[in-house]
Design a protein that fits this description.
The chain is an alpha/beta fold. It contains 34 helices and 16 strands.
Length: about 725
């Protein structure tokens, strides 16, 4: 395996594929919206699960298909590269409000043609009152809906407005057995159903919907086979003609049947990945342990001589490019939070198998190599590490990290496996974990995770303690009493937890409303047939068919609320340096408090630390809201290079002079100065005289250094000629 520790030459095909992919702005297309509307209008008498499979079939039989120039792996949800479809069954009104701005917004702009607008406007009226968001809103108590929409306490917007994602499915089964095996299993299940059982009808409908969905995918693949044959017949380039014939043969065989070689395994994987997105519009549909389920056919090809390392690497690189062809349009507010057209398709390599044996293989290294070759945002590449991870894999991963690509993310088996078992996973399933979306572990192909079901603002309950549960003139939280009459921190803290508990209960009710809406209106039969135990239970993932079912809301502002509570405890109740009345008034109007005390104060300057890649990328937006930036180079270096600077084993690779660090600083300075925001640098790099001239030429306004470094640095600056 030693040759895989180093670079496998990149095929000239890959830069061309990337260039074609990014040649133009992403485009919104109307085909799927029209097709699903046509289907729904014709199937109103059918049960919803059958309407979903019928719509999926109608879409896959009729949506335009294209083979992009030079592709070896085919299948695209849009004609335009990086284009996207719309999903009116979930929500649509927000797009109607943004037709005129979606192409000019700063975060993730999309071009939408006037004809596309016209086509969408023609179908959207059908969906009024029929979407999952409509039903979710109707399922919420009015007070809960009000808090969700108007008070900034929590949001359940991800699944309120969009399809369900955050899932890993059984790619291995499709590659090794084909969809025909799933169809056969469902037909056997239908034959064995007891008509006298109470769930007979729902089971029958589900299994029939799965069969229809899988057959639709097979039809879709054969459409690509036919297209490749037509293009091959017209092709005069003998090399490309042979490639098109191979594509035609592969698409005629997979995903209906087991893949016969590594190329077909790659194509089968891609059809699954692509069409899960076309079915649901969910983000964070994650390939999981790609190096494991793709390995058998890779090994077979290497052993029998039908595959070379170079060809295998080229096919992997093609998949890496295709993962960036998938796209999704979000509303303007969400786009700002998800900027970068991110779909968070997490692909992980390395780690243990169910028996606790390390299963690093050649593909583990080649996936890292693909990241070096392609250098695009997707996939979200991760690596599992533990005490038996080969040193060579760690070195390979570190070589990717130091390129400043922000990947791979490292996950420690020795921490994650026990933590998953504490949540109810078996040892075998915990050992076989993958990562979904950003950072969420789950058992491969067995879990409905809903990891981003909601986001809860931990600070809002604290604010409501001071207002006795009132916000914007409305009583949205419980009456926990006049904060001025609280005589102990315990009483104050109980008021906080009371507010928090009441608002969390609201969030749970909102989440349940969204969950029910998806089960009732948008179950996903194709996704469900690839997750254990949906077929055996006879119900979709959305109806609870998965082996494991978790809902994971996320709390944010934890550090802030902890700091705030500590301040109240120490200053108000323990040291009694500030009265509760003074604190409340200060929160209401800090300037009036200072004036009442007769204290002098100048204008406030508000700044923000820039010490994460996210802050760098958002520096243009942040600069308009503050007076100054302070770039914390110590943390920025470790986060940008994805390496713990306090780990002695990684310290030699943690290079603060890395081009990625300097580019990040330059970008931040440029964005800041456009908004007349000043920039200072703190951390060890500020005192690095080798970079002083570079910082000054960038336009850095301040350097924050230890007292002992002031005079040497001043001397250095005076010695420079910058004109």
């Amino acid at each position: 395996m030693s040759e895989l520790r180093f670079c496998i030459q990149k095929s000239p095909r890959i830069p061309q594929l990337i260039a074609d992919l990014y040649e133009n702005m992403p485009v919104i297309e109307a085909d799927r919206a029209e097709l699903i509307t046509e289907s729904y209008q014709q199937t109103e008498s059918l049960p919803v699960i059958k309407r979903r499979s019928a719509a999926f079939r109608h879409i896959l039989e009729n949506i335009p298909i294209v083979i992009r120039r030079g592709e070896l792996i085919v299948g695209s949800n849009s004609v335009a590269p990086r284009g996207c479809q719309t999903y009116p069954e979930y929500s649509y009104e927000w797009l109607g409000k943004e037709y005129d701005t979606v192409a000019t917004r700063e975060a993730d702009p999309f071009y939408i043609a006037p004809d596309t607008v016209r086509r969408l406007q023609a179908v959207y009226p059908y969906w009024k009152g029929r979407t999952t968001s409509d039903l979710a809103a109707a399922n919420m108590d009015p007070a809960v809906l009000d808090v969700f929409l108007n008070h900034g306490v929590f949001t359940v917007g991800n699944y309120f407005y969009n399809g369900v994602g955050h899932v890993n499915v059984n790619y291995r089964r499709v590659i090794e057995e084909g969809l025909d095996s799933i169809i056969g299993q469902c037909r056997e299940g239908l034959a064995g159903l007891d008509r006298g059982q109470g769930d007979y009808i729902s089971r029958r409908n589900f299994l029939e919907a799965v069969i229809e969905s899988c057959e639709a995918v097979e039809t879709y693949a054969r459409r690509y086979s036919d297209l490749a044959l037509r293009e091959a017949a017209e092709c005069t380039d003998s090399v490309r003609k042979a490639e098109l014939l191979k594509i035609a043969d592969a698409c005629d065989h997979v995903p209906a049947h087991p893949a016969r070689d590594f190329h077909e395994a790659c194509q089968a994987f891609w059809f699954v990945q692509q069409l899960l997105q076309l079915e649901s519009s969910g983000h964070s549909i994650s390939p999981g342990r790609f190096d494991q389920y793709m390995y058998p056919l890779f090994r077979q090809g290497m052993d029998d001589g039908s595959l070379t390392l170079e060809k295998a690497q080229e096919l992997l690189d093609c998949i890496w490019v295709k993962l960036n062809d998938l796209n999704k349009v979000r509303d303007a507010a969400s786009a700002e939070g998800f900027a970068g057209y991110g779909l968070f398709q997490n692909l992980i390599v390395g780690g243990q198998d169910e028996q606790g044996m390390d299963v690093t293989n050649e593909l583990s290294y080649m996936c890292l190599e693909a990241q070096l070759h392609v250098r695009l945002p997707q996939p979200s590449l991760s690596i599992r590490v533990w005490n038996l991870t080969p040193h060579a894999l760690l070195i390979k991963a570190a070589s990717v990290t130091r390129e400043g690509l922000g990947v791979p993310a490292f996950y420690n088996d020795e921490v994650i496996i026990p933590s998953m078992m504490s949540r109810g996973y078996t040892l075998e399933d915990a050992r076989n974990y993958c990562i979904i979306g950003c950072v969420e572990p789950q058992a491969c192909a067995k879990t409905d995770g809903w990891h981003d079901a909601a986001f809860f603002n931990m600070l809002r309950p604290l604010e409501l303690v001071f207002s006795n549960g009132v916000d914007k003139g409305e009583q949205i939280g419980p009456r926990t009493g006049d904060v001025l009459k609280m005589t102990s921190f315990e009483e104050f803290y109980k008021a906080y937890t009371t507010q928090e508990s009441a608002l969390i209960e609201m969030m749970v009710q909102a989440d349940n409303a969204v969950d029910v809406a998806h089960a009732v209106r948008c179950p996903l039969p194709f996704e469900s047939c690839l997750i254990d135990d949906c077929i055996s239970r006879g119900k979709s993932v959305q109806e609870g068919g998965a082996h494991y079912n978790f809902t994971g809301p996320q709390g944010f502002g934890i550090a802030n609320v902890a700091d705030s509570l500590a301040v109240v405890r120490e200053l108000v109740f323990e040291k009694k340096l500030v009265s509760m009345a003074e604190l409340k008034q200060a929160l209401a109007d800090a300037e009036d408090v200072l004036i009442a005390r007769g204290e002098r104060f100048g204008p406030y300057r508000i700044g923000v630390m820039i010490e994460t890649p996210a802050a760098v990328f958002m520096s243009g937006e942040l600069a308009g809201e503050v007076d100054f930036f302070s770039i914390g180079t110590n943390d920025l270096t470790q986060y940008l290079l994805a390496m713990d600077r306090q780990n002695p084993n990684l310290a030699p690779f943690c290079d603060p002079h890395h081009p990625a660090i300097l580019r990040a600083i330059r970008h931040t300075v440029e964005c800041a100065h456009q908004a007349r925001c000043s920039v200072g640098i703190c951390g060890e790099l500020a005192a690095d005289e080798d970079l002083t001239e570079a910082f000054l030429r960038m336009g850095v306004d301040e350097l924050s250094v230890a007292p002992a470094r002031i005079l040497p640095l001043r001397q250095k600056i005076r010695s420079l000629t910058l004109g």
